[in-house]
Amino acid sequence: MINSMNIINQFIKDFKLDPSSFEQEGYLRLHTNETCKIHIQINDDKTLITFFSEVTDISKYDQLDLYKRLLTATYFGQETNQFHFGVNPETYKLVLFKTINDEVMNEGMFENILNSLTQAVITWQEKIVNLVSQKDLFVEASRGSSSGNKSSNPFFLPV
After folding, report:
1. Among 5, 84, 98, 121, which residue carries the largest CB count within 10 Å?
2. pLDDT tens digits, the chain, 159 residues: what are they?
3. Contacts within 8 Å (CB) and 24+ apart, 112-120
């Protein structure tokens, strides 16, 4: 059985990557183009491998309209190449990710996931730019502090 660690180590060797970042930081960072940086991380007990990439900073957008669009896109993974969206709560970066069980991972799947994630990130970077140009998704400067919100978090939605 080929496990994810073997696949990643072979990938590092084949592409002449520096293995120290994977060994020290616990994840491998790949730059597939100027705007797409993919991270590959294996959990502590080495049973799950997660592929993820930041799409863009969404703190400057109207989160309600954008979230509606992102949730619609992730409905059964239809517009995201079967990846899922998340938002980093510290940086407000939109992230696409997929977690796979180590037992089912193989070399073909590994390469397919890298290619699909790269494609999904590039597509969503463009889609968000298009959404912003078509509709006013920018958050007003006064929103957050003077609108009565209980938090300075731009993602706080009053109930």
Report:
1. 121
2. 467 778 887 887 887 777 776 666 677 888 777 788 888 988 888 888 999 999 999 888 877 888 888 998 988 888 898 999 999 999 999 999 999 998 888 888 998 999 999 999 999 999 988 887 776 555 443 334 333 443 444 433 343
3. 113/51, 114/30, 114/32, 114/38, 114/51, 116/81, 116/82, 116/83, 117/38, 117/51, 117/52, 117/53, 117/81, 117/83, 118/32, 118/33, 118/36, 118/38, 118/53, 119/81, 120/80, 120/81, 120/83, 120/96
